Amino acid sequence: MKCPYCGNPDTQVMETRETENLDATRRRRECIKCERRFTTYEKADLDEIIVVK
Asked: Tens-of-pLDDT digits for all 53 residues of the chain?
């Protein structure tokens, strides 16, 4: 994950939790370079699958 503060591509996950309604994952991350912390929310994109024959 790219750091939003300095642009460094190397970050590490400090903490992972599910949101209260269990529809997303919340991750606290820390940049290896500038040591600033930020939060990301990850949610599955469940598009409908269409089979064309």
From this structure: 899 999 999 999 999 999 888 889 999 999 999 999 999 999 988 778 788 98
Tokens read off for 37: 């912390």
Amino acid at site 27? R
Residue 1 CB partners (closer than 8 Å, separation 6+): 9, 11, 29, 40
**8 Å CB contact between 7 and 46:** no
Place of tokens 């269409």: 50
Where are the chain's structural domains? 11-42
- Which structure tokens are listed for 31? 């940049």
Q: Which two tokens stand for residue 13?
A: 């996950």
**Contacts with 22 (C-beta within 8 Å, 6 or more apart), sequence order:** none
